[in-house]
Amino acid sequence: MKIVDVEALVVRAPGVLGAYGGPYGALVRIATDTGLVGWGEADSLPEVIRAIIEAPYQDELMSGIRPLLLGEDPRDPRALWAKMWKGTSQFGRAGAAVQAMAAADIALWDLASQAAGVPLHRLLGTARRDRVAIYATHPLGATLEETGRFARALRERGFPGVKFGWSPFGRDADQDAAIVATIRAAVGPEIEVLIDGGNVFDVEGAIERCRRFAPHRVFWFEEPLQPEDIAGYARLTRAAATRIAAGELCATASELTRLIREGGIDVVQLDLSRLGVTQAMEVARVAGEAGVPCVNHTYTLNLNLMASLHVLAVVPEISLFEVQGLDNPLRDGLFPDRPRPFGGFLAVPQGPGLGSAPDQETLMRIRVP
Predict the structure, then answer these.
(1) What's the angle, vertex CA 137, arms to CA 151 and CA 271, rounded to 5?
(2) First-last CA distance in the chain
(3) Diameter of the chain by CA atoms?
(4) CA-CA 20 to 30 A from 105: which of 181, 185, 201, 341?
């Protein structure tokens, strides 16, 4: 089996609301001479991802992704990750270059597991679970009353956990505490409440918020600091009784390893559309050694979610799995086969490969030439 084409597709649907207002996506399609096709996605600026995928070969350290993969056998994604890492090392090693590699990596694992006729998680290890407990992510309202309505609506839809965050968190400690109190009152005592700090706090502010949030039993406080503030996370996790989750913005295993080993975070977030399957499994190994649960970060399209289900089926310890609380017509139109929650859970896919691919008619209508 050989790769005969690698294509980056930018999709946009103006006027369509994304998870947080982003009606866009960056997909990677890898085709083989056998007719099998693998799909991946990157959470990044789509036009930048397309440029990195389609750039020409310059030399062995500076190449686009497409020239590096053409003619290769896709059934060894780890070896191809190493080839992409070396081939982009003069301009990559972080950021958008690795995010583009992540999209290709997801597609390669999709192909490898399709070729083997097994679900992706079978190539990654022994499945420890066939379903995951979920929580719903939702933006805050413009007022406390609106936030309360949003939270009650998620409770009525049967989600066992809810997460709210970003603006206006961080402006005023009293307001932040009132927001969390409103959410807890709206969902009641049985549903988990997760708070996303949106990277806007300093260490002292984050410690204070943990103290102020404590009466409302916050399940975890997510990303309060900038991801590179390893020393800050170490101080915060020592001082706070609340679980601290972080890692969603990281694109390399080395960044996440430092957050676990040096930052002492309690929950590590893996965004496979920035990280890829190959690196995610390396981070999961480090997390397992440290006794730190892995969770997904997923607010883009369905390929990220599907890849995350497969990875989290096999890692030693997980926590709640993120799904979106808002409708997303772009995602839902592209992926009518996406999994649906049932009873507060999502099932791990059992068909060959990722178990999902874009609807071609919708894709042709919304892709950007």
Answers:
(1) 170
(2) 29
(3) 61
(4) 341
Question: Quick count: other Cβ atoms within 10 Å of Cβ 327?
Answer: 11
What is the reported pLDDT for 16?
55
Q: Among 33-37, 233-237, 301-305, where is mean pLDDT lowest?
A: 301-305
Encoding tokens for residue 360?
């071609």
Angstrom distance (rounded) from CA 126 to CA 135: 25
Which pTM was predicted?
0.97
Mean pLDDT of 75-87: 98
Determine the average pLDDT of the residues in 339-352: 96
- Name the architecture of domain 123-347: Alpha-Beta Barrel (3.20)
Domain ranges of the chain: 3-118+361-368, 123-347
Overall average pLDDT of the 321-325 stretch: 94
**Cα–Cα distance, 76 to 318 (Å, whole number):** 26
CB 341 within 8 A of CB 134: yes
CB-CB contact of 322 with 221 (8 Å): no
Which residues does 35 contact at the CB level (< 8 Å), separation at least 6?
none
Give the three-class secondary structure for 3.
Answer: strand
Which token pair is 42?
């990157």
Instruction: Estimate the crossing angle of helix 302-314 against helix 95-116, to 10 degrees.
Output: 70
Taking the C-alpha atoms of residue 24 and residue 134, their distance in angstroms, rounded to an integer, is 24
Q: Where are the alpha helices (DSSP H) in the chain?
A: 46-54, 65-69, 77-87, 95-116, 120-124, 144-156, 173-187, 203-213, 230-239, 253-261, 272-275, 277-290, 302-314, 329-334, 360-366
Q: With 50 as the cut, is the pLDDT of residue 180 above it?
A: yes
Query: Helix, strand, coil: what percent of the chain each, to 5?
Result: 45, 20, 35
